[in-house]
Amino acid sequence: MLRIHFTPEDLQNIRISRRPDPLWELVCATCRLPTHQGPLEFGAWRRSVRERLTDDPMSQRAVLALQTLVPPVGYIPDFLTPSSDPEGGLPAALEEVGATPPSRLRHELTRLGTARPLPAWTTALGRPDGRSMRSLVKALELSSRALLEPRWPHVRRAIHDEIDLRSRILLDGGVLALLESLRPLAQWKAPVLEVDYPTHRELHLQGRGLHIVPSYFCWRRPTALADPTLGPVLVYPVTARPLDVTGLRHGGLDRLLGRTRASVLTEVARGRTRTTSEVATAVGIALPSASYQLSVLRDGGLVASHREGQYVRHSATPMGHRLLDGDGERLQETGVGSALGRT
């Protein structure tokens, strides 16, 4: 668990990135690539990336070099994700990586080397001539093209939807409501935000505030910079990721999710939030079955749930709506298409 300690000043200095952070997305995508995590969200992306790398040896070498520094689990050097303004895009971020002081490079690579053996080329990154560092920056650029470009429209859409969601929460309920809305990824226990994290850490903000970064390729649990002296950042997975639904027609949603689960998703997308009991009654299934199906859909990012008094209410996420939007047959049967603006 990561315990982030706030002061009153920190609560007044919370920022949320309005655009995707290209290097955080690149690092998280590098972590996702060799795994089987999120087959629905990332399976097609992984296949397309691997095909692209097979046809592009230069990009393949670049990604392999990056994977040397970015293991799927464990410590990742902080210099790969500088605190550059996402407004500057990838060029500004890469420029900041290239300007990393040699002493910091050596320190972070030494720490990485204690957990896994590093190839000889990493020892040259901190040399004064800067040649090896320029090669690494080029590898980051090539890796970004290979890993991020095919999915970037989805990334931008997901971040846009996420910021829209968090902005509404902030406007309606203020900063504390925003922190509360991070459940189940994090729990606000004033004055500490307890974050689901693979190791135990204490992070004292001490008036520096917190930069919150929603990420498309971040998965299941948030991540953060390892060095507590750097500007505090919390990167967390977006609530929903747009899917490629081309060809999801003629009952394709039933084949993808199963008829019962597809019916549950359709029911919670009818224009207002539904309780678990209402969903069970409408679909014609037992209450425990409805609760289970909703939990599966929620884990997949298709349904969002929140508590109102003694009830838990459910609604379809933007990704859930887009998945329904791809199944024209089900939309005609249920009338959901008109709710989404289709005629």
Summary of the model, kept short:
This is Winged helix-turn-helix domain-containing protein. The chain has 343 residues and is of the alpha/beta class.
Rg, Å, rounded: 22 Å
Shape: globular
Helicity range:
40-55%
> How would a textbook summarize the main sheet?
4 strands, mixed
Distance between the termini: 48 Å
Give me the number of helical elements. 15
Strand content: 5-15%
* Low-pLDDT sequence parts: 245-249, 327-343
Overall number of strands: 11
The order of strands across the largest sheet is: 3-4-1-5
H/E element sequence: EHEHHHHHHHEEEEEEHHEHHEEHHH
Domain count: 3
The helix/strand class is: alpha/beta
Q: pLDDT average, as an integer? A: 85
Q: How would you characterize the overall build of this protein?
A:
The longest helix has 29 residues, at 152-180. The chain folds into three domains: 2-18 and 154-237, no CATH class; 22-152, no CATH class; 252-339, Orthogonal Bundle (Arc Repressor Mutant, subunit A), CATH 1.10.10. Residues 245-249 and 327-343 have low confidence and may be disordered. It has a four-stranded mixed β-sheet with strand order 3-4-1-5, covered by helices on one side. A four-stranded mixed β-sheet has the order 2-6-8-7. Strands 9-11-10 form a three-stranded antiparallel β-sheet. It contains 15 helices and eleven strands. It is globular, with a radius of gyration of 22 Å. Helix 4 crosses helix 7 (131-147). With 343 residues, it is α/β, with parallel strands linked by helices. It comes from Streptomyces gilvifuscus. This is Winged helix-turn-helix domain-containing protein. Keywords: DNA-binding, Transcription, Transcription regulation. Residues 255-332 form the HTH arsR-type domain. It holds the Pfam family HTH_20.
